[in-house]
Amino acid sequence: MALQLVYETHSISVDNERGIATGWLPGELSERGRLQARELGERRRNDGIACVFTSDLRRAIETAELAFAGCDVEIRQDRRLRECDYGRLNGAAVDRLDPRRRFVDVPYPDGESYRDCVERMRSFLGDVVREFDGRRVLVIAHSAQRWALQHLLEGVPLEELVDAPFEWQKGWEYVVPS
Active-site residue numbers? Predict the structure, then answer.
């Protein structure tokens, strides 16, 4: 068997629109983001999702709450799904993080590295596979966790992922082996 994992980034936040790297700050959805969250719910409500997992940061929680309002699908928050901790750069202009590849192995000042994010995702996947093997789950989180999935499940080097242009899409689907 295998776990089917659907991955969606949180909807557009006020900080996204302003070019701010929110990192471990809570963030909040913009008006456009709230609309996107409701559209996510329309896409995924009848998609066979056994459980929705979100980061414990406000912008991801808000996305899930809006998307699945009035549904019986369980929503769980997991701290391991947080964005990369940019340390002193949480809340800074996005361009101050560039090039991100410098932080693949070396942590952001007073923060963490992208490899740290990969290890958080590895731990999360192990637990979710044990509980939901053979089922379909949805994860709503951040770009660092999407990169971690691509790295762990597809073998794409982190150095390539972290500096590639962001291309939003209506979810990514992964098969996580048991």
Answer: 10, 83
